[in-house]
Design a protein that fits this description.
heterodimer; A: about 250 residues; 4-stranded antiparallel sheet; B: about 300 residues; Alpha-Beta Plaits; 2 domains; 9 helices
């Protein structure tokens, strides 16, 4: 067994024992802010779970997503994702780490000068998938999100819902083990919001662990999933089939 | 890295040039304008330097010998003069030849033959041309220290004036070229930086999806280099095409000065101008884009 395989085995074992996402006494202080954005929180998310992270603005939800993406490094404690301790990741290891994560943002973050096909194919390009395979994979994922007929379209000309589907297709094409969605319905109307959430639920049913950051009570209350509620940097509640808790 | 990935990144660099058409156009125009001005000044300075050099080459010292110095000794001294570092060339003028030339030049052919003796006898001399006019004093002092030498004719004013003008032009041109170059470098790197900074989001998206630094950086760097290359080739072509036209215009317009103005061929200027422009254009495109992308890679 190669050392690479040994390390992977070790990570798999860690995931089985501690969850696919594991936060141990994590705090995050921004130098320019007095109070910590995240204050000594611990959280475990198991493989295949669907978790909502809710809370009002400034509660620390987005900071948590940034910690999971290794955009930020916790000032205290450890963040484990897919068995990787994000604190110990070297700069050169981050791309490899992120390839196992799918990420969707409120503002879609598509490459605006490329069409639908190119945006989705980009995720495959970076992991050097052969072109022949890419030509099969991209149409498949686009038809899964209902955009098979729009693969040549300019992303700037798509509706918000369609742009979010492209982002979803890009996040999923490499079959990530975790999908992180930061306010995925924040810029969408109710109909499109529901369609996106249904898709995310289907993805979860296929085995992908899903973490959705949202402050939409309608969605949280209707979907009956695990709900982690944050307030001022701490977790105030963590319930299976929970409901959205308003601050007041 | 797979070959296909390598070519993909190259292709993306070329495509970026067209995708961001206005930015590319603005950057290329800035670089071209800066380097055109630089090239123009560079050509003018090179020509002025050449004219001064030609003037310097015409400055000569005349060395006369005592009557009792033998022809062999004159020849020996001639050889010694030739070996001096200050000397570019030496011409010997026989006194009979000088008299014949003088008579012909001022009174017509056969004039000298009317004289039984050569009035200029003993005036045979060496005409010494200098390699560097500022070294004239050194040579004159050395010549005057020789007992066989009767007289050294030279013009201190001409040499001093030429040396002064030469150093003034050298300092001024170095200063202006340095300023122009610094302004060009600042403008070009700023243009490249602004162009990439507006695409910081694009870079962050690539990084979120899991692209390596190389994968993100390569197309941007290639794009920067291509912009630099096009931006430096345009002014070079313009200068190349305009140069002969301007030179012939100046020569015709100022015909009186045409004998004094010894212009360089464009190839002689391009020997230096082309590498400088290409290095500045492509180099700044490369370094500017590399540094700017690097700043945005920390995502």
């Amino acid at each position: 067994m190669t050392s690479k395989e040994k390390k992977q085995l070790k990570r798999d074992k860690f995931v089985e024992e501690n969850g696919i996402i594991c936060l141990e006494n994590v705090s995050m202080n921004y130098p320019e802010q007095g109070a910590p954005a995240i204050d000594n929180i611990s959280l475990r998310i198991n493989r295949g779970e669907f978790v909502f992270i809710t809370g009002d603005s400034g509660s620390g939800k987005s900071t948590m997503i940034k910690l999971l993406l290794r955009e930020l490094v916790a000032t205290h404690g450890n963040v484990f994702v897919n068995g990787y301790n994000t604190k110990k990741l070297r700069h050169g290891q981050i791309p490899q780490f992120r390839r196992n994560l799918g990420v969707v943002f409120q503002d879609f973050r598509l490459l605006r000068d490329r069409n639908v096909y190119e945006n989705v194919a980009f995720a495959q390009r970076i992991i050097e998938v052969p072109s022949s395979q890419m030509r099969r994979n991209v149409p498949n994922i686009l038809s899964m999100v209902g955009l098979a007929g729009k693969y040549k379209s300019d992303v700037r000309k798509l509706s918000g819902g369609e742009q979010q589907r492209v982002a979803l297709a890009r996040a999923l094409i490499n079959k990530p083990s975790i999908l992180l969605a930061d306010e995925p319905t924040g810029n969408l109307d109710p109909n499109n919001s529901w369609e996106i959430m249904k898709m995310i639920e289907e993805i979860n049913e296929m085995g992908t662990t899903v973490v959705v950051v949202t402050h939409s009570p309608e969605i949280v209350n209707a979907m009956k999933k695990r709900v982690v509620t944050m307030r001022k940097g701490i977790i105030v509640s963590d319930e299976e089939e929970g409901l959205y808790i308003n601050e007041d | 890295m797979k070959i296909s990935t390598f070519f993909y990144t190259l292709w993306q660099g070329v495509r970026n040039l067209f995708r961001n058409g206005w930015y590319s156009l603005a950057s290329i125009s800035t670089i071209a304008a800066c380097l055109f001005l630089f090239g123009l000044f560079f050509s003018v300075v090179f020509n002025i330097r050449n004219i001064l050099l030609t003037a310097e080459e015409a400055v000569s010292i005349t060395v006369f010998f005592n009557d009792d110095v033998s022809d062999e000794r004159v020849k020996e001294i001639g050889e010694e003069i030739k070996k001096r570092t200050e000397v570019a060339s030496v011409q010997f003028h026989d006194d009979d030849e000088i008299w014949a030339e003088f008579g012909e030049a001022y009174y017509g052919p056969d004039y000298a033959e009317g004289f039984p003796e050569n009035p200029l006898e003993g005036d045979h001399n060496y005409e010494v041309f200098l390699s560097d006019v500022s070294m004239q004093d050194n040579l004159v002092n050395w010549l005057q220290s020789k007992s066989e030498i009767r007289k050294v004719n030279y013009s201190e004013v001409t040499a001093d004036t030429l040396t002064g003008v030469n150093s003034l032009i050298a300092y001024v041109s170095i200063a202006i070229i340095a300023i122009l170059l610094a302004v060009s470098i600042f403008l070009i790197s700023n243009t490249v930086r602004v162009g990439i900074s507006v695409r910081a989001e694009e870079i962050s998206i690539m990084k979120y999806v899991g692209a390596t630094d190389f994968f993100v950086r390569a197309p941007f760097v290639l794009e920067g280099m291509l912009i630099g290359l096009i931006g430096s080739v345009i002014p070079l072509l313009l200068i190349h095409e305009l140069y002969d036209y301007v030179i012939s215009y100046v020569t015709e317009r100022f015909a009186v000065l045409s004998s004094m103005l010894n212009f360089l061929q464009i190839d002689e200027i391009f020997k230096y101008l082309m590498p400088v422009c290409l290095i500045v254009g492509v180099g700044i495109g490369f370094i500017g884009s590399l540094a700017t992308v690097r700043k945005h890679l920390r995502v």
